[in-house]
Design a protein that fits this description.
5-stranded antiparallel β-sheet, Thiol Ester Dehydrase, Chain A, alpha+beta, 34% strand
């Protein structure tokens, strides 16, 4: 049995998905593997960039948001995966020692007509820094089993 099923997602609900502080070494380690642009991996080059220092890859911010989602509700849910993400916006740079805070808003729920034991939830995930500045916004869908009778 799970804590969250399709029926537990209500349009308009906004819930916390947790917090996470990010370090410079984490930023460099992630970017070295997946997004090795100079302003993500090289402190000297980053200092000369328009960012004035190391910043996290937007993909790293997405990965951190995904971890927050897993820890806050997906591990306790009847999740069936996701058909995709519709929009990602990186609005402000994420910097070393930023403390990120996430929230999820349920935008739409739709019971499946072809598979009556499941439904689709459309959500917006927002990530803020310690100054309450929105640094990332992502919209996408998740598929969830319906609560057993």
């Amino acid at each position: 049995m799970f804590k969250y099923y399709f029926e537990d997602f209500r349009v308009g609900d906004v819930v916390s998905i947790g917090t996470r502080q990010i370090t410079e070494s984490e930023i460099i380690e992630f970017a070295t593997q997946f997004d090795p642009q100079p302003f993500h991996v090289n402190p000297e080059a980053a200092a000369k960039s328009k960012f004035g220092g190391i910043i996290a890859s937007g993909w790293h911010t997405c990965a951190l948001a995904m971890r927050m989602m897993c820890d806050s509700y997906l591990h306790d849910s009847a999740s069936l995966g996701s058909p995709g993400v519709d929009e990602i916006r990186w609005l402000k740079p994420v910097r070393p020692m930023d403390t990120l805070r996430g929230e999820r808003e349920t935008l739409e729920t739709r019971a499946s007509t072809k598979k009556p034991d499941q439904g689709v939830v459309t959500s917006e995930w927002r990530i803020y820094n310690q100054h309450d500045e929105l640094v990332m916004r992502m919209r996408g869908m998740g598929m969830f089993s319906r609560r057993p009778s």
